[in-house]
């Protein structure tokens, strides 16, 4: 039962808030309508129909007492002028039906009940035969008496006004409440959207507090949190930049010193030259490792998000990868595809994936297409792949595979994708190698 109710109820805050407003309105107006219709209207209708029924009984008694046709005609004229009852006598007439046609309101049932209590003759009441009158047919022993009574003496016209007022006021109050609630919900939606955009790493700036006091407080708290996080990231980036400078300075001096050492002469000098080349290679590897460590620690938060055309962007990435001796067999991109991203950060992420394939002597197929809510990028290689039980492990920092490396390439790529609000997954490629599935939201 509870699950069925949840399926019917709206899921949005605006819809549920409007239901909270609508139900009390309907209950209140229903109670008011019942009090009016069930008490006042019935009492007034009963009194009106009793009065008309009494005048009809008076007419019947007078017509039965008066034997002279001239006297009967005189009474009919008096009934028309004084009682507003138009009476027509049809000698020998017979009723084809009895009862009443029904209309909205209690007056039809009240009139039938009043006539049943007042007379013993069969009768039929037509409410729809004429617009302004109600025709009553009474079967007498020697004919039918037709009586046209003014409808305004029986019909409570105010019921339509009351129903219109009830429905109109309910709709008006509901629309006003909906406008106010929409403004309140709009502020909550703006706050949720700002939090979502900030979680994707997009710099949206402070949001303007709006709505109710509690929503304004939440917006102010969000702005303070956003400012603290931004200042923390900027401070950490500055510190890491200083660390990068301090680490590179002695390495640069060592490289220069090794480059200036003599390499010609004796066999010992040749041996020394070989050692120097190995030392220079070690220094280059140390610089590469430092770059990887700093990139992992620094992140890519300082770059702004842009709407990038995917075709030229991925062509540029593939060109750089081929210049770095990566065998890219094919590039398949959906025409007109665009995505929100930090271009330099995405180049680093894709570059790490290409470098991972290069270390395993694998060729790469890069493809991109539009999916629901974003863009899907697939990087497939024909290398040895990664067993399913190790895919979660290799995404952790400093977990290096059999191809060597610092163990940060996949980790950095995943962190960059997550900083965009997306996700990176590892799977088996169709050719048996590794498939890296990247998702970037719009």
Residue-averaged pLDDT, rounded? Answer: 79
Q: Report, as a whole number of angstroms, the end-to-end distance.
A: 39 Å
Mind telling me the C-alpha Rg? Answer: 46 Å
Order of helices and strands: HHHEEHEEEHHHEHEEHEEHHEE
CATH class of the domain at 10-157: Alpha Beta
Name of the CATH homologous superfamily of the domain at 10-157: Sensor histidine kinase RisS, periplasmic domain
In one word, what is the shape? rod-shaped
Subcellular location: Cell inner membrane
GO cellular component, one term: plasma membrane
EC number: 2.7.13.3
Membrane topology: Multi-pass membrane protein
How would you describe what is shown here?
The protein has 442 residues and is α+β, with helices and mostly antiparallel strands. Among the domains are: 10-157, Sensor histidine kinase RisS, periplasmic domain (Beta-Lactamase, 2-Layer Sandwich), CATH 3.30.450; 302-441, 2-Layer Sandwich (Heat Shock Protein 90). It is 58% helix and 16% strand. It is built from eleven helices and twelve strands. The protein has helices at 2-8, 13-65, 69-83, 107-118, 158-199, 213-260, 267-298, 310-323, 343-359, 391-394, 409-419, and strands at residues 86-91, 99-100, 123-126, 133-140, 143-150, 306-309, 328-333, 338-341, 364-371, 374-381, 423-428, 434-441. The strands form three sheets. A five-stranded mixed sheet has the order 1-5-4-3-2. It has a five-stranded mixed sheet with strand order 7-9-10-12-11. A hairpin with a 6-residue loop joins strand 3 and strand 4. Helix 2 (13-65) runs antiparallel to helix 3 (69-83), helix 2 packs parallel to helix 4 and helix 5 packs parallel to helix 6. The longest helix has 53 residues, at 13-65. The mean pLDDT is 79.
